[in-house]
Fold:
Amino acid sequence: MSTDPAVLTVRPGPRPRTVLDEHGRLLAVPADWDLLAPGDAGLTRRVKAAGAYWLVEVAHGRRRFSQGLWAPSATIAEARAGLERERSLPEYHDRRRADQRRREQQQGLYVAQFREAVLARLRFAACHGDTARRLAEAVAAQATPVGSGTVARTARLDLEDKAELALMAWMRHQTSDYDRRHIARIKGERREVRREIAQASRRILEPYRQGARVDAATCPLQQALRRLENTAGTGPSAAEGGRADRGRAGKGAARPGASAPPGASAAKGAWQDAFEGFLEA
Structure:
């Protein structure tokens, strides 16, 4: 084993106080280093800025998760003491409250904008305006929470495209058997299931867009909205859709049956990349 107290991204090793670097080499953690657990972003930033550290990450699918930071014990102690002194000052708490108010205002504005973007994507006839508003509220409530990891939180896409993807995700989880369906672990199988459900979702929405009469007792959309409203959005059915689609704006082919977004080719547009990621995940 070798030790190299530099700035590295590593993964957990087979034994305590060991890690594997990007080449799979086994490294021993220096004796005077400690593991700083994740969770305090301010402290982590200070330790990183101070010098040598090893960032421990594990991969789950396309995503990577931090398991902490190996760094010199003295560096961690000094950074923690300095941060505690700063956080004890009244000015620090004033800044925190001001930042919190600003974030809440920004989040409220974003939720309202996202809801309007979903409404625009629905294109329901005026006679179904109430259903459109209820559906837009439900989609926004599922997709926009901070830290949810849903497509609504990605910076890769514009608002209109995020609204379309979030709408399809909501329909998939709330109006189909997707969450209960057994999908074989065969390459491309989940993608095909999602294509099938996306087509069924569009068929459900079409009468509302045409202004046709809808039987509220049997319509899957009306049933899903009633179910969510009866549980005030806190039951298992309200949460499943948000969990299943977190962080899945990946890469791939174009959205079936749609043209490329303005300014992008059908093969390379960010909208198509994200949609295919949703189908593949």
